[in-house]
Design goal:
298 residues; mainly alpha; 70% helix
C-alpha cells in the first residue's frame, strides 16, 4: 500500500486517539527510565527487560485468576509490584555497590542484567508467544467520530493522565520526591544533611522499575508477549527521554506524545514507511533542540 491520498477527518481523529493510547505506554515506561536516569544517573539498559517481565507476569497472573475481570485487576497490581520487588533485590544486592563507579561500568552492568533477565524469561516461560484477551468489561469497541474504537484503548487514555498526575504529586508533594529531586542536583549536600542517599536511590530505582512493569502489564492484552519485546521499547524509551530532556518527567510526556502521534499519523498516511516518522521527528527535535525540549536534570 502506498501513500494514502485521501484521509477523512474522522479517520484522522480516530488515529490520533490510537496514537494517544500508545503514548500512554511509552510515557509510563519512559518516565520510569527518566526518573532513574535523572536521580541515579544510570542509563538502565535493563529497563526494557523489566517491561517484558511485567508483561509475562501479567499473562501468568491473568491465567491464574481465570481470565476474568478480577484476575486482570489482580495482575495489573501484582505484576508491577513483582517487578519492583525484583528490582529492589537487584539494587540492594548488586547495584548499590557500583554507584561510585564510572558510568561505563554502570552501563555494562545494566546490559548484563538485560541478558540475564532475557535468559530468566526463557527459562520460566519458554520461547513461545503468549497472549490473552482483554478483560470482559473492556472488550469490544465504541463508536467515536462514527468509527469503532477499542474500549481497552479508551482505558489506556484514562490511565495515562492518572499516572502523570501521580508522578507529579510524588515528585513535588512528597518528602521522598523532594529529597530525590535534591539528590539529582547535589547528592553530596543531601548526604551531608544526614539523609541516607543510598536508600533514596533504592526508592527511586524501585519506583522507576515499577513503572516499567506497569507499562508491560498494560500493553500485555494488546500484543503478543514474547522475548525480544524489550529491545524495541528500550530504544524508543531512550529516544523519548533524550528529546524530552534527560531526567525530566514532563519532558518524557512531551517526547512520548511526539513519538506516539507521529507513529500513528504515519501509519494512516504512509503505511509502508510509518516506522520512519517517529525517528524523523526525533532528528528534527535534536537538530533544533540538541539538549531536549525541556531542561535536563543533568
Amino acid at each position: 500500500m502506498g501513500f494514502a491520498g485521501h484521509v477523512t477527518l474522522a479517520a484522522f481523529c480516530q488515529q490520533v486517539l490510537v496514537g494517544l493510547s500508545r503514548t500512554t505506554i511509552l510515557f509510563i515506561v519512559a518516565s520510569g527510565l527518566s526518573l532513574v536516569l535523572g536521580v541515579l544517573r544510570i542509563p538502565n539498559i535493563a529497563h526494557g527487560s523489566l517491561y517484558m517481565i511485567g508483561a509475562f507476569l501479567t499473562y501468568s497472573l491473568v491465567r491464574l485468576g481465570g481470565g476474568g475481570s478480577a484476575g486482570f485487576w489482580m495482575a495489573l497490581l501484582a505484576a508491577p509490584l513483582g517487578v519492583a520487588l525484583l528490582s529492589f533485590v537487584v539494587e540492594r544486592g548488586l547495584l548499590c555497590r557500583l554507584y561510585e563507579r564510572e558510568h561505563l561500568m554502570l552501563l555494562l552492568f545494566t546490559f548484563a542484567l538485560m541478558l540475564v533477565f532475557g535468559d530468566l524469561v526463557k527459562m520460566i516461560w519458554g520461547a513461545d508467544y503468549r497472549s490473552f484477551a482483554e478483560p470482559p468489561f473492556l472488550q469490544g469497541s465504541v463508536l467515536i467520530f462514527g468509527l469503532p474504537f477499542p474500549r481497552y484503548n479508551l482505558f489506556l487514555l484514562a490511565v495515562g493522565p492518572l499516572v502523570a498526575i501521580g508522578l507529579y504529586l510524588l515528585t513535588n508533594r512528597t518528602k521522598i520526591g523532594k529529597i530525590a529531586r535534591a539528590a539529582a542536583v547535589d547528592r553530596e549536600m543531601v548526604g551531608a544533611m544526614g539523609i541516607n542517599v543510598s536508600w533514596v536511590f533504592a526508592s527511586v530505582f524501585v519506583i522507576g522499575c515499577f513503572l516499567a512493569g506497569l507499562g508491560g502489564a498494560l500493553v500485555a492484552p494488546t500484543q503478543n508477549i514474547t522475548q525480544g519485546m524489550d529491545h524495541a521499547i528500550i530504544i524508543e524509551a531512550f529516544l523519548i527521554v533524550i528529546i524530552g530532556g534527560l531526567g525530566n518527567i514532563w519532558g518524557a510526556l512531551l517526547g512520548a506524545l511526539i513519538f506516539g502521534l507521529t507513529d500513528a499519523v504515519g501509519i494512516l498516511i504512509w503505511p509502508q514507511f510509518a516506522i520512519v516518522f517517529p525517528y524523523m521527528a526525533v532528528v528534527v527535535v535534536l537538530v533544533f533542540c540538541p539538549k531536549g525540549l525541556l531542561k535536563s536534570i543533568w
